[in-house]
């Protein structure tokens, strides 16, 4: 058995020396060192040997395996070095060529608009607040003066998860949560940007998922004139000092009185054109004075505290500001569209 192992070693080392490719070496490794190789066959026959010879043959077999494996690795390393050297001889590399340009991305237009609005309101003393997108029925509706069965719930087609859990239809729940955290004892001055969800058919002006930024100010002696001043400053900084605003009566369950804000048309300057449908005005957001019921449910004394709230869609603001005609452009990830607004 000893002679057989020595014979296999000599035979394998000779083949290794004669091998000219890495693939040949791989075949030699499998042939001699694999589970079905001759060395393994020798070891399987060790049971027939006397006890005192088994350790000797076992040690010799391991040494033979190791020497064959070392020879294969050494020859493989030599062949790979020779192949690399040959490749370098045959290939010309011009190190003076300029590198390939790396395309650098930029913020999404919606991200830029949201950050611009955040900076604007931070400059006016507002805080940024966030809340869960999976919301309870209480905070999404009931705490905002929309009890179960209220007809105004139909205005917001809701994705319900259970009877009490849903995908939030607006960011107003963040306002309710923030007021609750104050226990009706501290003023609130905040905006809450985030994603919202409604069962809507996607088209040029609607999406089942979109973004909102809602604002809230609650304190003593807050008046409608304060709301108008904040919105006037927002419109001036976002669209230009030459833009005028107007407030029209409207209805929202959580504000009373409620208004919608229009800005003068950029295209015609308020004279009337096809963009503003001849009115000279373009609707941009909804607002109003916080309903006393909402204040009371959050623990505020509505005789002492008052407040205003507003809500806007960053998509609509971006569309008006940059002349974009289809809300779906924001979500289809067309790089040609996105590149136009890297520096917007």
Automatic annotation (TrEMBL):
Coiled coil: none annotated. Gene3D superfamilies: Bira Bifunctional Protein, Domain 2. Keywords: Aminoacyl-tRNA synthetase, ATP-binding, Cytoplasm, Ligase, Magnesium, Metal-binding, Nucleotide-binding, Protein biosynthesis. Its main location: cytoplasm. Binds 2 magnesium ions per tetramer. InterPro entries: aa-tRNA-synth_II, aa-tRNA-synth_II/BPL/LPL, Phe-tRNA-synth_IIc_asu, Phe-tRNA_ligase_II_N, Phe_tRNA_ligase_alpha1_bac, Phenylalanyl-tRNA_Synthase, tRNA-bd_arm. SUPFAM superfamilies: Class II aaRS and biotin synthetases (SSF55681), tRNA-binding arm (SSF46589). PROSITE patterns: AA_TRNA_LIGASE_II. Tetramer of two alpha and two beta subunits. Belongs to the class-II aminoacyl-tRNA synthetase family. Phe-tRNA synthetase alpha subunit type 1 subfamily. This is Phenylalanine--tRNA ligase alpha subunit.
